Structures are given as structure tokens and as C-alpha cells.
Recover the amino acids of this structure.
């Protein structure tokens, strides 16, 4: 008798590789039809662990009756690498591995059904498109295993919700399906596993035993450079960093925003013109990214300046060093980024951290401590989003007409929708049938209709065609292609940014200086511009990630309690001294924050009277907390306040001290839970935020028909903007289901309402410790400097209109 | 409401998105796009029917309060004439008959194949352009035209913006003293955004019509 998994083991032996124990465990579980979540750092053989059992079977079998393995990954770019990895062992067999994603041609799409391969690689959106076919039933009938890669990343977004819904359907098409999730290290792996399974199903957690320990080093300032007290771009350590780069040793420099990536790229190219330096971020054209990714694999590049677009995915074997500019914002992200470097079993991961301001030093120390205690951030998956379900119900109706009872059972068998009550489901169904579940009239509306057996089906062929084209649009921001006049595509920028540019304006993008010609048909036409004039750097809304709870808490704890620095920090003595310096300055000017009392600082400048409060709750919470405080204060005392926030605290600026006195004297009242939601609505421009969010909601629900390039003309009669839909609905059907969904999304994602409530409760209980500053303290300075970046409007329409037109009265 | 002088005519830019010409008794508007919501509904995009009814109510109000004797629609009376149903026709006919004034339309690009329906609703069809005092009435603006022109088609909006805040409203826009663009009459329309420095905009805000000198420096 041959030993189990002989074929794949022999194949690997021929490559000089012995499987790890966790990989064999994973194979055995898959072979036995047991569900599992494989948890291991990227680069330690997760793909092989997830697919080895299937590959082994395929190597020993002549033919299959259809696809036996479906591999879902979040990133299109990853499918190519996985395709190669899975094809290699099957090269001597007749089995094929086929990628089906947004890049597939229509011929490839058709061939997939006509001549099904043994293995299909796809993204959640493309899987949805496959499921929208009447032939999906036959295609997936013999599916044995489905692999969901990067589950930790998918799970937190609506694409994860879509994946759960697709899995529920696959389970019906192939009842003996085995689910294999793959994820990086997670705070709550049980919950992540559970989200992949049907109710009542159980599974295993398969962990790699490869302990990839992580060491950190902080870039030290030298005699010619110092770390500034405030700021995010942080080019001040450019020279010390430049000396760390070595020709022939591939280094990835991670930045937090594309803006920062573009700037560092430009700067490094100037000071290290001897090196091969490239830029990689999600907005660049695919071709440009592919070239860079290839360079990372074969080691032909010295330095790549990158954003989170490189966080995920396959490993770059040639990468020797990882550098992080600024704060990593979350522990999980640093771990993920550290995992991008070359891995050899037993070796240690190492990251060089480059502070862009002094507070980052405390964040780094906190990061190391959180790593020691294995405190990763929990993942919050979306709960029962209506827009995704709306899209999915139409998708399923395209596959086959469905009965409401059966589909309700199928939907509520997912983790995301298990709490969905029948009333809400029926309201959603009514919305798909009649336009809304309210009393508002929508004559001639049609999307889903009922046939003679009461089964729900798509109203007509045009609705069907439009739906197929609009699946796969769960993307947060509309992108505009940037194209050279002579035709080369450079990448994409967010519509909001493109819309601000006027013809003739010059901006930096993709490492070049470009001049705007026109914005037309979803494309921004540009030509090379002259460097001296470039003032604008694209700013992307997605770039700002708040400091996580975990890290923020660790920073406060660290500041209050002296430093037992983690052993994983290599230059701990330098850092200890640097932290002590920051703290002694902070202590001299006011006091260091601590977990059990709230630090408040007051300061008078030429601008007016400042009040600084440091809740350390992350800017997302601060940017809603600040207006609430301001709004409640204005209820007690008419006044005008300017608000500024960052990850650590809030600044309120007033013309005279009285309002600030009042606020402090009624502090706990200003934080009370009663009417919080209503006051939030009045305090921030909530409806503007919801309007912006509605754009993605409407797109997912299939209300914004964008068509394809070149086909836009044919849909002209249906052209509209999400803003317009929002205005019309808001005015004539304010209770519409999708408006509520957009509002929920804003409250959970944009405002982090749950964390806001927690913060308010916590702050109200804490004693305050108020200090008057003669000069701004290290904590106050960043808020003073950032003021203009983050002014918040808490005014009524009349005041805003008045202000926007003020001074111009003729 | 705000006074608007164009091509030696005195007009009143009204907050109901119409342009009132007291001297001739004409009420001008453009881009009504009747049937637009229904086309969206048919495609599975829920636009409440109340949106179009509100447009027609506002039209009735405008005619009543101005005391106009003739209504001139400068194009895009309909959104897509070939998809108009008999029921819609009947309903619109009643609404226009109730206005009880002379009805004129200059056909716009959206009105292709819509001439018969316009006539059935009681409209007389005027050529593009139609002379009106020293200027022309048309659907399409034409920067090369020899005479000043009042036109629709563009759906102009005005963008009031400073570093940290912005508001957008439909507007009347006068370009180079030569072209007066009317706002789209229908609520359910967007359009290009003019900055007050690019055109003389009469912004239609919830606080009334704000003339150019209230929006931008001279």
C-alpha cells in the first residue's frame, strides 16, 4: 500500500522540499472532509497546506467530472501566482487550473462552462458572476473542496459577506463540500472559522508550528537630522534611512498612504540615484505593478516604496529587508508586513521602523509590547448588510427562480445573516419587487417578479444583463483611470481627487509630474508636466487608518508606567532614552497621560484659547467626539469653536476662555449617553456623510449602472449619480431600506459609533487632570499644527452658506 | 427671486427654477425630463413617483404665482419619448391643460421622436433658435452664435466652496454676456458645476435666489 499523499510528497521531494507537519495535518483533514481554518503567517506554505490533498488526488486520477477545487482569493493580482503554484505539480496530468476573474476574456468565460477545468481560481465578485449563470448548478455539482484565502482580510469587508453568501449557495449545489479557510494570525480564530461554516457544522484550527518571531529596530536620528515633534510625511530621517539601503539587497519600504509613498519615492530616488528604486501602490496601472512585483520576485530591484497594496498575497522570496515609515497603526498590519520578507523556516522576521514624529517612538514601544502579549486587533465583520443581500438575491434568481422560504433558510445559514429576521427579509423582498417597502409609490418598478408557482425570477433580459455587469462592484471608491494623451494608462485615482483637478493643473502621480488635459468618460487625460509647478499630490480617502484600541491603550500604559521595553526591540537602550526625553518634556510642560485619569491641557495663543483633551481613542472616534462636545457646549452657551483631532486627542479652540470653563465644569454632562445619537446627527454633517456612503451602497445594490468603457453611451438614459438618487429618495421616501443601510454603515464604519459610546462612558468616569501650558506640550503640538487639515463643520445650512459667501457682499 | 438683465431684457430668476419675463408675460424653463423616473423604475432603480409629481406641482405654482400667459419650454420636455405610455400621456395632458395658458416647446436632444406627443399635450412647436427681442431662445447653447442666446441642455449648478466645506445648487448661469443657461427644471437631475468666478451664477438655494454679487468677488 502506498503511504498517504505519496504523489504530492514525491513531487515535493523532487523539488528538495519536505512538507511541514502542519501541512500534512491540513491534508489529512481535507481528505477526511473536515472543515478547517489554516492559520499561518504568509510565506510559510499556506497554499500548499490548503490544496495539497486535492493536488495529490488529481495527480493520481486521469479525469474529473468537473471542477473539484475552487480557490477564492481577494486580490486579482494573486490569482496569477497561485495559478502557477497549483499548475506545477499537475503539469504531467491532463488536469487544468484556470483563473476566472475580472480580467478574463469573454471567450475564456464561455470556455469555463464548456470545458470545465479541475481547479478554478477566482475572486468573490467573479464567483458571484459564475453563480449568476443557469449552468452554475452543473459546473459545481462535483466540487469537493473550496479554499478561501486571506480570510482575515475578506472577513472584515462586505466582500467577506458576499463570500459567505456564495459559500451557502455552493453548499446547496455540492452538499459534501469541504471548506478550507486560510488566514494570517488572528485575534479570534474560532469566530473566523465559524463564519465560514453552516450552523451546526464544526471544523478544526490548523496552525503552523513555524514560530516566526519578529524583531524591531528603530531608525535613530543622527547629528544632522532630528525627529520632529509633529507631522506625518517625515522626510527628516531621509538621510539616515538612505544610508541603510544596500544595492543588491531588495528592500520594501512600506508607507501608510499613497501620498507618502509618492513623496518618499521621489526623495529616495534623488538621494540614492545609484539604486534601482520603484514605486508600488494600488492606484498604479496593473502593468506597472506587475513589473514591480516581478522585480521583487527575482531580486532585480533594490528598493520598492509601497503601500498596503503589497500587504497581502504571495511572498516575494527575494525581499531581504522590510522598512516601515511612520506608524503601522495596528499590530496585525505590522505582522502582515513583516511577513513579506524572505522566509526560511526558523529564521526571524525583522522590521526597521522609521519614525516621522516623536510620538511614533511610543507607538513602536507599544507595538512591541502588544506583540509580546499577542494582542492582535479583533476583526469586526459587517452584520447583515442589505445592499449585499439585495445583489445576491438577484444573482441567485438568475441562476434559477427561487422560493422565498427556501432562500430565507439559505441566507440565514450564513454567519453574517443568521440574525436576519423574516420581517426584514420580507421588506427587502418587497423592495426588490416594488421599489420600496414603504407606502411610497413606484409605478412600473421591476426587478424581481413572481412566476406562476410564486417563485421569484428576474423581470426581463435587460435587467438580467445589467445585473451581470454590475456584480463585482463592491469597491469602496469610484476610480478614474489616469491616461497619457498618447494612450498609455498610468493607473487610477479616486474620482473625488480627479474631480478637483482643473485642466492645466499639475500633480504628481506614479512617480511622474503630470498636467491635466481633461476629465472625460471616466478617464483623466494627462500629459507630462514640468516639475516646478507640481503642487497637488493625489490624496486618497482610504489612506487613513486610525490607531487601533489595542495600540492606543498600550501607548497610554507605556507613558504612565515607565518602560520595561520588549526584548524584540534591538536598539532598546537608544529607544528608552528617546522615550524618556519625550516624557520628561511632556512632564515638564504638563503631565504624562495615564490610564486612570484624563489629561486635559489649556493654552492661550494668538489664535485664542485652546483646550486639549487626550482620550487616546483614535482619530475616527475623536472626529465624532469633538463635534459632540462642541455641539453640547453651544447648547449651553452660544459660541464658535474650531475643532482639531488626531489619534491621541482633541483640540477645541475658542475666542475667549468662558466656553472652555463651562465645558470643563459640566464635563460628565457633556459626555452623557442620553441623546448621543440625536446630538451626533445635529453635531456633524451626518447627512453629507451618509450621502457619500450611499454611493457604494447604491452601487452594490445595482442602482448605479456604470457599464463598461465604450458602452457608456448606450446607457445614457440611465445615467445618474448616487448623490442625486440619494437626494430624491431622501426627499420622497426617507424610510427606504437602503438609506437606512447607508446610515448604518456610516455609524459603524465612519463614526465607529460603538467605540464612541464606550469612550464617552469611560471618559465620564475618569477624573480629569487639568494643566495650563505656557508653551505647547509634545502632545499638544501636533494638534496645533494640524489644525487646518481637520476643521469640522458643525453649523447649520444658513451659517455655512453665509460663511461660504461671506465678505463678497457687494 | 432676483432681477436678471440679459440682452437688454429684464427677467426675474425665480426660486422655482423658472425665468419670468414680465414684459411679454412669458415664463421660460428648460429640461423638464418627463418620464425620467419611470425609465429608472423600469430598470429596477427605485425613483419615487412623487419626484415627478412634485415637479409638475411646482410648475403649476410657478404659472399661478407669476401670472404668465405663455409657457416656453426650451427643450428636453421628455426624457425618452419612445418609452412613454398612454397612461403617462393622459396624466400629463391633464396637468398641462390645468395650467390654462399658451404652451410652446423647442425640441431638445431628449425630445427626439417626441414632437407628436408634445402636440398631443397641447404644445406648439417652435423652431430652434426662435428669435425673442434681441436674443434667441434655443435648447442647445452655441458660443459661436451671432446673437445672445437663452438655452437649456447643460443643467448648470454652482459650487460654493472653501477649504473645508462646500455646497452645490442648481443655478442660472450667464457666460460671457452671450449665453444665459437655465437650470434644469426637474429635481431629478445633476449637471456640471460652475465656480462663481467662471460665470455669473444665480444660485437657487433654500434661502432663495442668490445673485452673482452675493456669491463671488467682482
Amino acid at each position: 500500500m502506498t503511504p498517504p499523499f505519496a504523489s504530492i510528497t514525491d513531487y515535493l521531494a523532487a523539488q528538495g522540499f519536505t512538507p511541514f507537519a502542519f501541512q500534512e495535518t491540513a491534508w489529512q483533514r481535507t481528505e477526511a472532509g473536515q472543515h478547517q481554518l489554516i492559520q499561518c503567517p504568509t510565506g510559510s506554505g499556506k497554499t500548499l497546506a490548503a490544496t495539497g490533498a486535492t493536488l495529490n488526488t488529481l495527480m493520481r486520477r486521469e479525469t474529473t467530472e468537473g471542477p473539484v477545487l475552487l480557490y477564492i482569493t481577494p486580490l486579482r493580482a494573486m490569482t496569477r501566482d497561485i495559478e502557477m503554484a497549483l499548475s506545477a505539480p499537475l503539469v504531467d496530468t491532463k488536469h487544468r487550473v484556470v483563473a476566472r476573474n475580472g480580467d478574463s476574456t469573454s471567450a475564456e468565460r464561455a470556455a469555463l462552462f464548456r470545458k470545465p477545468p479541475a481547479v478554478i481560481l477566482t475572486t468573490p465578485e467573479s464567483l458571484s458572476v459564475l453563480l449568476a449563470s443557469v449552468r452554475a448548478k452543473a459546473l459545481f455539482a462535483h466540487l469537493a473542496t473550496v479554499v478561501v484565502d486571506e480570510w482575515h482580510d475578506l472577513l472584515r469587508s462586505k466582500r467577506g459577506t458576499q463570500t459567505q453568501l456564495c459559500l451557502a449557495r455552493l453548499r446547496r449545489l455540492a452538499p459534501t463540500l469541504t471548506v478550507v479557510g486560510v488566514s494570517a494570525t488572528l485575534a479570534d480564530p474560532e469566530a473566523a472559522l465559524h463564519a465560514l461554516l453552516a450552523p451546526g457544522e464544526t471544523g478544526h484550527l490548523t496552525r503552523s508550528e513555524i514560530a516566526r518571531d519578529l524583531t524591531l529596530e528603530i531608525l535613530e536620528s543622527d547629528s544632522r537630522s532630528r525627529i520632529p515633534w509633529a507631522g506625518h510625511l517625515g522626510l527628516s530621517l531621509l538621510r539616515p534611512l538612505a544610508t541603510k539601503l544596500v544595492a543588491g539587497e531588495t528592500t520594501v519600504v512600506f508607507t501608510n498612504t499613497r501620498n507618502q509613498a509618492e513623496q518618499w519615492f521621489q526623495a529616495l530616488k534623488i538621494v540614492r540615484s545609484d539604486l534601482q528604486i520603484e514605486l508600488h501602490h494600488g492606484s498604479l496601472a496593473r502593468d506597472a505593478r506587475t513589473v514591480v512585483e516581478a522585480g521583487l520576485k527575482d531580486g532585480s530591484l533594490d528598493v520598492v516604496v509601497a503601500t498596503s497594496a503589497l500587504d497581502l498575497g504571495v511572498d516575494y522570496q527575494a525581499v531581504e529587508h522590510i522598512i516601515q515609515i511612520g506608524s503601522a497603526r495596528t499590530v496585525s498590519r505590522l505582522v502582515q508586513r513583516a511577513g513579506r520578507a524572505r522566509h526560511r523556516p526558523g529564521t526571524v522576521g525583522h522590521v526597521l521602523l522609521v519614525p516621522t514624529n516623536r510620538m511614533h517612538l511610543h507607538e513602536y514601544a507599544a507595538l512591541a509590547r502588544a506583540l509580546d502579549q499577542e494582542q492582535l486587533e479583533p476583526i469586526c465583520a459587517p452584520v447583515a448588510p442589505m445592499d449585499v443581500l439585495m445583489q445576491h438575491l438577484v444573482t441567485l434568481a438568475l441562476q434559477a427562480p427561487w422560493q422565498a422560504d427556501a432562500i430565507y433558510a439559505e441566507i440565514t445559514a450564513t454567519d453574517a445573516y443568521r440574525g436576519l429576521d423574516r420581517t426584514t427579509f420580507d421588506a427587502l423582498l418587497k423592495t426588490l419587487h416594488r421599489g420600496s417597502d414603504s407606502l411610497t409609490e413606484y409605478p412600473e418598478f421591476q426587478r424581481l417578479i413572481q412566476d406562476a408557482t410564486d417563485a421569484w425570477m428576474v423581470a426581463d433580459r435587460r435587467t438580467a444583463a445589467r445585473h451581470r455587469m454590475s456584480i463585482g462592484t463592491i469597491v469602496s471608491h469610484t476610480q478614474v483611470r489616469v491616461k497619457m494623451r498618447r494612450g498609455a494608462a498610468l493607473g487610477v485615482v479616486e474620482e473625488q481627487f480627479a474631480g478637483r483637478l482643473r485642466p492645466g493643473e499639475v500633480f504628481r502621480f506614479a512617480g511622474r509630474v503630470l498636467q491635466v488635459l481633461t476629465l472625460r468618460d471616466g478617464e483623466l487625460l494627462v500629459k507630462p508636466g514640468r516639475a516646478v509647478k507640481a503642487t497637488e499630490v493625489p490624496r486618497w480617502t482610504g489612506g487613513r487608518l486610525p490607531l487601533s484600541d489595542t495600540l492606543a491603550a498600550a501607548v497610554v500604559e507605556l507613558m504612565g508606567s515607565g518602560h520595561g521595553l520588549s526584548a524584540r526591540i534591538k536598539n532598546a537602550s537608544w529607544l528608552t532614552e528617546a522615550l524618556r526625553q519625550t516624557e520628561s518634556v511632556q512632564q515638564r510642560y504638563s503631565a504624562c497621560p495615564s490610564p486612570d485619569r484624563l489629561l486635559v491641557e489649556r493654552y492661550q495663543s494668538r489664535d485664542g484659547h485652546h483646550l486639549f483633551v487626550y482620550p487616546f481613542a483614535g482619530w475616527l472616534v475623536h472626529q465624532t467626539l469633538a463635534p459632540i462636545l462642541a455641539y453640547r457646549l453651544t447648547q449651553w452657551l452660544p459660541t464658535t469653536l474650531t475643532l482639531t483631532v488626531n489619534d491621541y486627542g482633541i483640540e477645541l479652540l475658542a475666542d475667549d476662555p468662558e466656553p472652555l470653563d463651562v465645558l470643563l465644569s459640566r464635563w460628565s454632562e457633556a459626555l452623557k449617553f442620553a441623546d448621543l445619537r440625536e446630538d451626533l446627527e445635529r453635531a456633524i454633517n451626518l447627512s453629507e456623510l451618509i450621502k457619500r456612503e450611499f454611493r457604494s451602497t447604491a452601487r452594490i445594490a445595482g442602482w448605479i449602472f456604470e457599464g463598461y468603457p465604450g458602452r457608456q453611451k448606450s446607457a445614457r438614459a440611465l445615467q445618474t449619480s448616487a448623490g442625486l438618487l440619494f437626494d430624491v429618495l431622501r426627499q420622497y421616501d426617507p424610510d427606504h431600506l437602503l438609506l437606512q443601510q447607508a446610515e448604518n454603515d456610516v455609524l459603524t464604519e465612519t463614526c465607529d459609533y460603538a467605540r464612541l459610546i464606550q469612550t464617552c462612558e469611560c471618559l465620564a468616569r475618569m477624573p480629569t487632570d487639568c494643566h495650563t501650558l505656557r508653551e505647547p506640550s509634545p502632545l499638544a503640538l501636533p494638534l496645533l499644527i494640524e489644525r487646518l487639515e481637520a476643521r469640522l463643520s458643525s453649523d447649520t445650512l444658513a451659517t455655512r452658506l453665509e460663511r461660504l459667501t461671506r465678505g463678497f457682499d457687494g | 427671486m432676483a432681477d436678471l438683465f440679459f440682452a437688454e431684457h429684464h427677467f426675474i430668476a425665480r426660486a422655482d427654477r423658472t425665468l419670468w419675463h414680465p414684459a411679454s408675460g412669458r415664463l421660460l424653463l428648460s429640461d423638464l425630463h418627463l418620464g425620467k423616473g419611470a425609465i429608472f423604475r423600469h430598470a429596477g432603480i427605485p425613483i419615487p413617483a412623487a419626484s415627478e409629481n412634485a415637479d409638475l406641482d411646482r410648475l403649476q405654482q410657478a404659472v399661478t404665482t407669476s401670472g404668465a400667459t405663455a409657457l416656453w419650454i426650451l427643450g428636453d420636455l421628455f426624457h425618452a419619448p419612445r418609452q412613454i405610455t398612454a397612461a403617462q400621456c393622459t396624466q400629463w395632458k391633464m396637468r398641462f391643460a390645468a395650467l390654462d395658458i399658451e404652451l410652446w416647446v423647442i425640441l431638445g436632444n431628449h425630445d427626439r421622436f417626441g414632437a407628436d406627443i408634445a402636440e398631443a399635450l397641447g404644445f406648439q412647436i417652435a423652431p430652434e433658435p426662435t428669435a425673442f427681442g434681441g436674443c434667441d431662445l434655443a435648447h442647445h447653447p452655441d458660443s459661436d452664435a451671432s446673437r445672445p442666446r437663452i438655452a437649456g441642455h447643460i443643467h448648470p449648478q454652482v459650487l460654493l466652496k472653501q477649504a473645508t466645506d462646500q455646497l452645490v445648487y442648481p443655478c442660472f448661469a450667464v457666460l460671457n454676456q452671450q449665453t444665459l443657461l437655465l437650470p434644469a427644471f426637474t429635481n431629478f437631475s445633476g449637471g456640471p458645476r460652475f465656480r462663481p468666478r467662471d460665470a455669473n451664477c444665480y444660485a437657487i438655494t433654500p434661502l432663495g435666489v442668490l445673485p452673482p454679487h452675493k456669491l463671488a468677488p467682482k
Notes: Chain B has one domain: 2-215. Chain B is about 20% helix and 30% strand.
